[in-house]
Write a structure and sequence with these properties.
The protein is α/β, with parallel strands linked by helices. It is built from 17 helices and 19 strands. This is Bifunctional NAD(P)H-hydrate repair enzyme.
């Protein structure tokens, strides 16, 4: 795979099309030449990934993605492989038609797809049905896509798995499940979030040998998150230098949630962590983690002195939405302290909307995001980028939209995408950890933006370290030791 100078830069489909047009009109590289380079890059990836492959089937659509497929088929045939092409139609135009002619001149082993027919056996299937232009369900090819997925044959997708929206990561209908995707020119943002996690497989980006001047003046839409941690502490550091986190929550029966939040704050380096919670949680918290300074709080008056001593608040884990939780929530938000809101802290915010004037981080999952934007979870997932940015702008806060490919959005439009994490993290308590991590980083002097980005990365990477023993059965508390390791820059995932 070609080295990628822009390896962290993500673009919309329209931006990639603009880069494609620049290459053609400004650099004088023909569309057919770009198609040939794409086919060469993809065929090389196929040979590296499946070195024993001797027979392939290439599925071609009528557009330029199909053109890439026809040229890859020609290269594979020329190398001695057995190659079949199955096409949706013979209505290719422009460069795609020229690519089809190239294939037919080299080997006329082309079949039209019929829904009632079976697929030929192969070592590898190549998906060149639809490219980045598809933003709807692939109705005419849905049955074919389902057949390919059910075949058990590994799939190489060219540019984007057909049926996956390369802008949003949404799949409005059937979509290819690829084992490897080779994407061309630049990284499309939709390949890193949402349903993309189950469709893309291993992802390789090839810039097709285009010079760096092509990207000059083209802003990125988003950026891949990079691994970060705080610098080592000075030798004369003391607990007062690392901030004081106040974790607020833990209604009756939810002591575990607020404990996880507080302990994550400790493991992320906060100098002091206090917990404002129900009185019946104190024995459990003090015996399980004596470093947490747990306080029984019955209402706003008892919360006030704790707020005065705090640097940053973590509000929401186990808070509940009853009278007790609402009173503490309202008092915390009115305190003017920087804060992190999660869980019921977000559900209460959806009921009583406000825009923040202090540094604030909101960490919703898609369901909570839907309530905050007064829409549906499905609408959030259809365009996670738009949802995260809308939340950040509406509440004037940094927003972490959790899920596969978590997004971190700033009110000014900046957005980072996290590529770490695993399905084992879909279990109770993971969000409570994130609240404590981000609050601790803010308490140690990070801006809300930097704390959210660093915190999401540390949280996800700790999850990946913990999952080395298996994803199923992963507990939130399993992340605490790896979190400490990563927070000190001792190991990178």
């Amino acid at each position: 795979m070609q080295a990628q100078a822009h390896h962290r830069d993500l673009y919309t489909v329209e931006q990639v099309r603009a880069l494609d047009r620049r290459a053609i009109h400004d650099l004088g590289i023909s569309g057919f030449e770009l198609m040939s380079r794409a086919a060469t890059a993809a065929f090389a990836a196929l040979c590296r990934h499946w070195p024993q492959a001797r027979r392939i089937v290439v599925f071609c659509g009528p557009g330029n993605n199909g053109g890439d497929g026809y040229l890859l088929a020609s290269l594979a045939h020329g190398s001695g492989m057995l190659v079949d092409v199955i096409e949706l139609s013979d209505a290719s135009r422009g460069d795609a038609a020229a690519a089809r002619d190239t294939w037919q001149r080299s080997a006329d082993n082309t079949h039209h797809w019929h829904q009632e027919g079976s697929l030929p056996h192969a070592d590898v299937y190549v998906d060149a049905l639809y490219g980045t232009g598809l933003n709807r369900a692939p109705e005419s090819a849905a049955a074919l896509i389902e057949q390919i997925n059910a075949s058990g044959v590994p799939v190489l997708a060219l540019d984007v798995p057909s049926g996956l929206n390369a802008d949003t990561g949404d799949c409005p209908g059937a979509a290819i499940n690829a084992q490897l995707t080779v994407s061309f020119i630049a990284a499309k943002r939709g390949l890193y979030t949402g349903h993309a996690a189950t469709k893309v497989g291993a992802l390789q980006i090839d810039t097709l040998g285009l010079p760096d001047i092509l990207w000059q003046g083209m802003p990125t839409d988003a950026t891949l998150l990079e691994a970060m941690h705080l610098p080592p502490r000075t030798r004369d550091a003391h607990k007062g230098d690392s901030g004081h986190v106040l974790a607020i929550g833990g209604d009756h029966g939810t002591a575990g949630a607020i404990r996880l939040c507080g302990e994550a704050a400790l493991r992320s380096g906060a100098g002091l962590v206090s917990v404002a919670t129900r009185g019946d949680n104190l024995i459990a918290l003090n015996s399980a983690r004596p470093e947490l300074m747990a306080h029984a709080v019955h209402g706003p008056q008892e919360l006030q002195p704790l707020l005065e001593r705090a640097t940053v608040l973590g509000v929401g884990p186990g808070l509940g939405q009853g009278a007790w939780g609402h009173a503490l929530w309202l008092t915390a938000l009115d305190s003017g302290k920087p804060l992190v809101l999660d869980a019921d802290g977000l559900n209460l915010l959806a009921r009583e909307t406000r825009s923040f004037t202090v540094p604030a981080v909101l960490t919703p999952h898609p369901g909570e995001a839907a309530r905050l934007l007064d829409t549906t979870t499905a609408a959030i997932q259809r365009d996670r980028f738009a949802a995260a940015r809308a939340l950040a702008q509406r509440y004037h806060a940094v927003v972490v939209l959790k899920g596969a490919g978590s997004l971190i959005a700033h009110p000014d439009g900046r957005l980072d995408v996290c590529t770490w994490g695993n399905p084992g993290m879909g279990s109770g308590g993971m969000g409570d950890l994130l609240t404590g991590i981000v609050a601790a980083l803010m308490a140690q002097g990070c801006s809300a933006w930097d704390a959210a980005r660093m915190g999401v990365g540390l949280h996800a990477r700790a999850g990946d370290l913990a999952a080395r023993l298996g994803e199923r059965g992963l507990l939130a508390s399993d992340l605490l030791e790896p979190l400490r390791t990563l927070g000190n820059g001792l190991e990178h995932v």
